[in-house]
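Reviewers asked in the last cycle whether our approach scales beyond single polypeptides. To address this, we selected a multi-component target totalling 424 residues and predicted its structure end to end. The input consisted of the following lines:
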Amino acid sequence: MDMTGLNMLAGWAVNGDTIMTEQMPIFGGYCGGVEETAICDVATTLASFVMFNSHIHLDGPIHIRWGITTARETLQISSHVGAALDLNTDLLLSNQYYPTAGPCTEMCLLETAAQAIADTASGRELISGSAASKGVARDKSTPMEARIMGEAAIATAGMNVADVNEILDLLIGSYEAEFHHPPKGKRFQECYDLKTLTPSAEYIGVYENSIQILKEIGLKMKY
Amino acid sequence: MVASKPVSVFEAYDRFLNGKKAREDTWDYVTVPNNAALIKNRYYLEFGKKIIPEDKDIMNRLFQAGVDMLVETGFFNPDLGKVMYVTEDEIFEGIKKATKKLRLGHGKDEVVCERRHGNPSPKPIIQGGPTGAPVSEDIFVAMMQSYAQESTVDTLVSGVMSTVDGHAPTANTPWEIKATLAEIRAVREGMIRAERPGMAI
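The resulting structure, written as structure tokens, was:
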């Protein structure tokens, strides 16, 4: 925590603002492997509430090789951390989304759905996304990714966790081999009509295909 | 030892000032990885193949490992080159004090964020938006409006406006301040156009 962060927190605390503290541990970085990164993640999540006046914590374990939150290892970290804190505290926990594929691709929607499923079943209270294309490409985010994030969460809420794990294993396995060459997808301007703010017929089709894939692996999606 | 009171950000600053001196490279390359590995072994943590843990024992061991990590390692301030510490009692005092329920937004657009505990049928709050990704200035309002009109989206998260008045919002410059305020105005305009003016950002 540097002085800029401390000073901003001080201002918000005195002002009575709602404070969400963001912290993204890097799997494969200084912390080490999956378990070590999870330990650091629990510690820093606790610190945000215990030392820095936070009201809700925004997680986001990142894979050092791929720069994303939707890899098998980073989903395992965030799910274990969420479940461990959920079982032992009343803290409000959230997570954020950085898939590697770009908008208007099935891979992007399936990555986003996988994280929504994992976050929901591990007890998190808020999910925040999604920044497709790793969150680094200009205009490569659209509401269709947020839509599948929400719909996948709704379908997952209330499910048995063992069943959720089976779905996740299949779902992550369906896209992780593509991390070397993820589809770049399209910009918001290419996915939406900027006058009517409606998604393109192409993206609607991609969305429907993705929902069908999720249904086939066991997720009871309504829409 | 029983905590005298919860730690605040102001107490944290005082503890940093009076904390133990440390070098950033030693902290990054030695202190954090060594302590994490040590504590992993202490609690026999091996996640196996499951993405979400189904065994409460491993959840409890991971939680206690995180508590140990915070107590024994402390927290580093790179500007001051100091490490502050909290006790285990202070951690649990802070957990008890923490907010259990948040009202986000206002009016008809308000949503309540409260503890779910496990995987109950209430869904998490859905916060939609580009999540810090770069967004062109000329489409910013349209993009945020399109998120706000989504029926599953409860609250909004902003992107980063790539330019403001054509200038890059470089960190630690006046343009950064202007761009940040322009972002907030654009998000609010998008919410209003979507007829959800009370959404939380």
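The first strand of chain A starts at residue 20 and ends at 22. We regard this as preliminary and will revisit it once experimental data from Aim 1 are available.
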